[in-house]
Amino acid sequence: MSIESPENVLFVVMDTVRKDRLTPYGYDRPTTPNLAEFAEEATVFEQAVAPAPWTLPVHASLFTGMYPSQHGADQENPYLEGATTLAQTLSSAGYDTACYSSNAWITPYTHLTDGFDDQDNFFEVMPGEFLSGPLARAWKAMNDNEALRTLADKLVSLGNTAHEYFADSEGADSKTPAVIDRTKSFIADADQSFAFINLMDAHLPYHPPEEFAEEFAPGVDSAEVCQNSKEYNSGARDIGDDEWADIRGLYDAEIAHIDDQLGRLFDWLKAEGKWDDTMVVVCADHGELHGEHDLYGHEFCLYDPLVNVPLMIKHPALDADRREDQVELVDLYHTVLDVLDVDGGTPASPAEDAVALDRTRSLVSDSYRAFEDLDAADRDPGQRGDGDYAFVEYSRPVVELNQLEEKAADAGITLPSDSRFYSRMRAARRTDAKYVRIDRIEDEAYRLDEDPAETENLADADDPAIEATDETLAAFESAVGGAWTDALDDDVSDDSVDEMDDEAQERLRDLGYLE
Fold first, then answer.
1. pLDDT tens, 382-436?
2. Pairwise CA distance, residues 131 & 227, whole Å
3. Cα dihedral sign for 495, 501, 507, 510?
4. Computed from CA positions of residues 455, 458, 459, 464, in that sequence, does the dihedral angle turn out positive or negative?
């Protein structure tokens, strides 16, 4: 890099936070005054695109520089395998690395935290003893043994559903203050550091701290509103306008709490004289739907409230300004390598793949998105077109399907097999157009410049922008192994449950997987 770069990186993921609920993006409620102040010295990206609409594949992409179909970590295989992580690369280059979160998907169970020198998951279901020592080795043995892998898969699939079970309105307490405190302690003791944190407050269920609930959702009882998206999506539960307003108010309150805690961390960095020596990245891994397109949560679609996410970066090479060009969260892998002057590309073990720094993917590089300068053989699958495209992938959501089918069955509802609930999806997006390939229902396409709410499907329309996006999506699909055209079986039941002992089945029953 030509501009002197900070020696440290603080990477913040605000889990499940919509762009349009943040003050820097024009929201009319004061949810994020600290981020508004941060935005005054950062680059605010208006068109940042996530590679998937949920946590696990997005974080795997952030940590590998690969698209979901390349790294393979998804609900059908909830593990990151065969790929060297950003943390492994940075740790081997001499950087102190740490990961703190309260998200059940970002743990040693899924291998997303491989390579971090220090880590902690503040999620109450996940015992801290698993993070190191004999239990960690036992867990790895389960993953490596085909006979035990099904059980390991089921344990991983508890994921964020367990968060909903334990985070009830009376017992819920945000883990974000503890994440912030641990991050401060790590940075204080580190020399050159990469600190990654995931803040989980805005993920369902919404039970914000009282002071923020009083401001943004006064009089709302969080135990009375619908906190289970599968009830609504299955048709088992209706939500009226007033209840949606209450849900959105609670969501705003959760975001306000995240902002308050980020302000505490930022103020500490400034007081300690570490602010100028730290690149700060703040983004969301995906957003959330609150009734748009008759959906709740972040499953079963690739609409923009889920995949067009907030992204703000403070770095000397980036102007304190707003950018309208499209970028991808996948690019942040290369941006971190570039900022910390690490080439990458060396596998942590011989059987793994490792992505090397590509400055056409680095947001702080003068050659960012100059894909036309690359030889065709050197391009990754996402380097199709002229650099104006982003790509999103969504494998079949088997965990959500199990819950969705149970809620539907309880209400006497049969879900149609030819529906979005059973579909795998891929999308190509540019700032004016999006094309979504879907394997069970008709494709979707939208002119985002004319129809930002994505209400008019133009998949069959004679529109040059839509046609070009469709063609570029096809090129991406070809590069990653072909289009998803072989829809999977309807049955999403797990026969392995019958093979579990009574205690294991009771655990699944407590967490909502069994009736």
1. 999 889 999 999 988 777 788 899 899 999 999 998 999 999 999 999 999 999 9
2. 30
3. positive
4. negative
Write out the two tokens for 6: 């900070």
Cβ atoms of residues 334 and 358 within 8 Å: yes
pTM above 0.85, yes or no: yes
List beta partners, residue 353: 83
Which of 202, 210, 211, 201 is closest to 177 using CA atoms?
A: 201
Q: What residues contact 428, with CB distance under 8 A and at least 6 apart?
A: 389, 390, 391, 434, 435, 469, 470, 472, 473, 476
- b (16+ CB within 10 A) / e for 440-464: beebbbbbbeeeeebeeebbeeebe
Decide if 25 contacts 312 (C-beta within 8 A): no
Contacts of 94 (CB under 8 A, 6+ apart): 192
Burial class (CB in 10 A: 0-12, 13-18, 19+), 472: buried
Pick from 493, 514, 511: which is nearest to 156 by CA? 511
Alpha-carbon distance of 246 to 154, in angstroms, equals 34
| Cross-strand bridge partners of residue 278 | 8
- The single residue listed with the structure tokens 């930002």 is 452
The angle formed by the CA atoms of residues 487, 485 and 428, to the nearest 5 degrees, is 115
d(CA 482, CA 494): 28
Classified as helix, coil or strand, 198 is strand
Structure tokens at 492: 């999403």
The predicted-structure confidence for 378-394, as pLDDT tens digits, reads as follows: 899 999 988 999 999 99
- Report the alpha-carbon distance of residue 298 to residue 302 in Å, rounded: 9
Distances in Å between the Cα of 197 and the Cα atoms of 53, 59, 180, 228, 446 are 19, 11, 8, 26, 34
Element (H, E) at 166: helix 159-166
User: pLDDT digits over 267-283, tens only?
Assistant: 999 999 999 999 999 99
- Per-residue burial over 404-421, b = 16 or more CB atoms within 10 Å of its CB, e = otherwise: bbbbbeeeeeebeeeebb
Q: Per this entry, what is the length of the chain?
A: 515
